[in-house]
Amino acid sequence: MPALSPFPPGPVLAGLLAALLALPSPAASAPAAAAQQDDVLAATLSGEYALQAGRLGEAADWYLRAARAADGDPALAERAARIALLANDDDLAGDAIRLWKRHAPDSLAMRSAQATWLLRGGRERAARRELEKLLRDPDPDGWRHALAALGSGTRDPAASAQVLGRLVASGAIPDQLQAWLAFGGLAQRFGEPGLAEGIVAEVVERFPDEPRVALLRASQLREAGDADGARAALAAIERQAEVSPELRLAIAAEYDSLGDPSASARIMALGPQDERSYGLRATLLVKAEDRDALAALYAELRDGAGQPDPAGRLLLGQIAEYLERHDDALEWYRSVPGGPQREVARLRATKALHDLGRAEEAYAELRALQTDADVDERLRRDAYLMEAELRAADDDAEGEREAFARGLAAHPDEGALLYARALMWERRDDIPRAEADLRRVLVAEPENVAALNALGYTLADRTNRYAEALELIDRARVAEPDNAAIVDSYGWVLYRLGRHEEALAELLRAWRLMKDPEIGAHIGEVLWTLGRRDEAREYFQKARELDPDNRSLLRALRKTGAEA
Question: Where does the signal sequence lie (predicted)?
């Protein structure tokens, strides 16, 4: 769904530029205008420096000062409001939104932010009025802004669900299928099956012949635990997938969500096939560990592989590799004639050689790629990454370390190599070195979200430097506030800071965004700490079903004693 929190695209200082352009002409009052420009510039830069340090409350305050100095510039007021909302500073957010409203009263973004602020302050009646205005706005994007505000407003899903229920009852949802489907999906995310069922019933009545309604019904039944009912709803529309590629993908995705990737692959086999559908089928069958079906797909593709199609031959190599037909895989990879697939094939060929027990040949080919000035620089870099991966598979710790060292000597401060080496150090429990590599990534790329989150999470999980971890994770949250991995990191550092109830709310939000074993393990540990042990065991079990060997899960089980 549309995210409320991300900042508008463009350079970080785009708001500053707009503010400066809006100032009085220096010809009219040169000293006053110059002073005003200096005030805006100083406050904006201070805000940006605070933001880069992860001090969100301070950053919001500086941006609000900049907006005031720029005569209420809406872009700066918006930035202040969004940062304040992310910092959970309701008072500061209110000041910024009021300033924003004075200068951009008709902005859908402002009204959406205002509804979010009202929800967070527990002013549900006022929030509902704002949401109703957005839903009834003639602008076709009005309902999307209402959806964003409702989805990211209160931290209490039950309260948000109650507001949504009243909006449905009042007839405020526009008579558009897409809007009803979106709000139905939101009800499911809130974990309110009764509300979701009511919305589905309303959608069925309004749009009885629309197959996407059956998809919503299937999703609602799945969330309610009725897998058989969900399958029945999907079966009723399967035939339509043959003539609608979009519907085919949606049905396949729903079967995959049901934990049945084999059925998902079967749906993808309906109708005309292309490179994308073949690739998805292969991926799903690998996920299902259905070797027989994958072998049949391999035979189907092989029989039609007379032409030198690079993508098809690469896919055949990848399927053969999974089926452990390493000779075939090597042959297919060698036969990829050109295009970007050729580079991938050259790397995968070294993996096939390694799997055939010809490790020295594999390493020799990787060395040749690493030193070949005629190949793409990215391929040379990836050859070091592949070598490190194969050395790790050989339990050659020194070889893995040395591959990274040579790679970084050839490609100094290359982010992908540093990031991968940091993960190696973390795996070896060498946290200082992992931190050093991640910080090197951030020196070159201060806004690298993956590195910010990885370093913040590592400090929260493996050290007691929680305040520093929070600053790093907050910087990542500014860039991607609805990224489940980042929300999980935020919840985890709150837990480590002893803010258990806040942590649980964030971790549950991360779980709603993505069902992941590490998130499930974190929720279980927090619930256990709060004394809610039956609920904790439920989440530990959910995490175990996703990945019984997950490192975070195993640590949480040992720490809590729940495995006993």
Answer: 1-27
